[in-house]
Amino acid sequence: MPLPETIAVKYTEEEAEYLSMRPLVRQTFRAPELVDMIVQVAGKDSARVQQILRAGTIVFHSFRYWWQGFDPDAAALAEILAKYPDADPARPFRAADCTEVILESSGSPPRHSLRISKESAAKATGPLQKIARTLRHKPSFWQILMNFAEEAHPRYREYSHTRRGDLYSIALTPAQIARLAHEAAQHAPRPLRAELLEPPAISQIAFLCPRPHAGL
User: What's the pTM value of the predicted model, to 2 decimals?
Assistant: First the structure.
């Protein structure tokens, strides 16, 4: 059947291993909005999205969503999914496009990760620190991370529909990990420093470069 114009959805906070006592919320979604939520969890694989629409439930950002499951028209669904970007391994890494750096431990998915935004890594901790940095021509920690990326040449990993951007990564050597820890101690803003100096055993670093999105 074609995708309905609107879909009645109920959701509540997900609680593992016992019956949730959280309040149940009702909301009306447009079909592209519901598909967008599913794509962020499952990617744009048409068969997987159809399966979730038929099942009528998904967990998204720690909330469980339910709706009356339905079998969507393949052509109508394909029209929506076509608006989402595909992975593009030929797309080069550009530091100017990067907005987030993610330190990851081993495992797939990684067991631990630490996300560092451009804003949190670029700012000084106060006006005096900003003036001092300018006078000494010291780079921000964000600039140091971008310089590191351009030297190490990250490889293309994937397009992340969850983060709405291309991910590039570097498998870190012990020497590179030690270098990043040293740079963090010298240049990272104080709010970040404690997390950076005592992270879980990281093994790779990823760089997020958002891409224009037209899914909805």
Answer: 0.82
